[in-house]
Amino acid sequence: MKFKDQTAVVTGGARGIGAAIAEAFAAEGADIAIVNYGMEEECAEVCRALTEKYSVKAAAYQCDVSDFEAVKTVCGEIKKDFGTVNILVNNAGITKDNLTPMMSEKDYDAVVDVDMKGVFNMIRHCYGFFIRNKSGAIINISSVSGIMGNPGQINYSAAKAGVIAITKTVARELAPRGVTVNAIAPGFIQTDMTKDIGSGGEELKKTIPVGHMGSPKDVAEAAVFLAGARYITGEVLRVDGGIAM
Ligand code: NDP
Q1: Cα–Cα distance list, 194 to 94, 97, 99, 112, 191 (Å)
Q2: Domain coverage including residue 35
Q3: H-assigned helices in 134-215
Q4: What is residue 51's DSSP assignment?
Q5: How confident is the model at residue 198 (pLDDT cuts 50, 70, 90)?
Q6: Fewer CB within 10 Å, N or C, the chain?
Q7: Alpha carbon of 114 to ligand 1 centroid (Å)
Q8: In this structure, is residue 160 part of a structural domain?
Q9: Which atom of ligand 1 is nearest to the CA of 90?
Q10: Residue 146: CB partners within 8 Å, gap ≥ 6?
Q11: Burial grade of 83 (CB within 10 A; 0-12, 13-18, 19 or more)
Q12: Is the distance from CB of 188 to CB of 165 less than 8 angstroms?
């Protein structure tokens, strides 16, 4: 058990990649705090299942990660319930795609607020835990869109590129304190976010060198690896079947 007696916070942990990450850390003995926007009942169910299967403590907190004050409050609640945070996985994210001439200001701001500012908010309010512990790992879920750009995703690509810059900045700040900070850049992973690819799926698969989409578990394995790798920091690990090489 790699992470016994440690607390892992996973944003957007009720479904998709976040749920797989929460489960992977629980399987390694970590107690789990899920920070999710909605889906209160589903979150409670995910927590019950983790406790039953892995005998870890698990609790869910309803919060919009783009809301600075709400994140501050939730991080205070997590401190009360768990004592500290050893691993922070910033996974919550949304898309609102459109080609640039059609992209509304509202949709641009919404994606940047959740996908990039949400990462800042969580790190900002968990920073003290890592400083005090002089150890730990922060993992931010970026995207290959943040590396390569992607037509129709000016908001998402900008936010995910920003997440890489946040990762490298905080990695430099926290390296002397024994804390690693890394990003994962997934390619096409089968979740609710990509379910609308539908009939375009076959064409898309031809662009992926390994020939198929990834699973949330593929990303979760990378997160567990990075959290345990003490000499890797400021890195962006692609989990993309080779799409962005
Ligand atoms: P899903 O849409 O399946 O899940 C997203 C999760 O984020 C949900 O649990 C959702 O909560 C939560 N969330 C959304 N907005 C907020 C918010 N404002 N505050 C708190 N929680 C929020 O997405 P995926 O699992 O596919 O994606 C997870 C991450 O991986 C995202 O950052 C995404 O950008 C990234 N990614 C995904 C790829 C893919 O192919 N799937 C590729 C590259 C990157 P709720 O359930 O309440 O809506």
Answers
A1: 11, 12, 18, 19, 6
A2: 7-239
A3: 145-148, 154-174, 201-206
A4: H
A5: low
A6: C
A7: 10
A8: yes
A9: 32
A10: 156, 157, 158, 159, 160, 161, 162, 163, 164, 185
A11: exposed
A12: no
Q: What is the CA radius of gyration of the chain?
A: 17
CB-based contact 69:45 (threshold 8 Å): no
| Residue 2 forms part of a structural domain | no
Within-domain flag for 216: yes
* Ligand 1 pocket residue status of 37, Cβ below 6 Å: yes
- pLDDT tens-digit series, residues 150-172: 999 999 999 999 999 999 999 99
Atom of ligand 1 nearest to the CA of 188: 40
170 alpha carbon, distance to own chain's centre: 15
Amino acid at 91: N
Euclidean distance between CA atoms 152 and 28, whole angstroms: 38
pTM above 0.90, yes or no: yes
Structural domain contains residue 245:
no
**Rounded (10°) angle between helices 154-174 and 105-112:** 30
With tokens 């869109």, the residue in question is 145
Distance between CA atoms of 230 and 55, rounded to whole angstroms? 26
Predicted local confidence at residue 204, as pLDDT = 86
Integer CA distances (angstroms), 44 to 63, 70, 73, 157, 170, in order: 14, 19, 19, 32, 31
User: Do residues 132 and 84 make contact, with C-beta atoms less than 8 angstroms apart?
Assistant: yes
Domain at 168, CATH number: 3.40.50.720
Pocket test for ligand 1, best of 17, 188, 208 (most atoms within 8 A of CB): 17
199 falls in which pLDDT band (50, 70, 90)?
low
Domains in the chain, number: 1
Arithmetic mean of pLDDT over the chain: 97
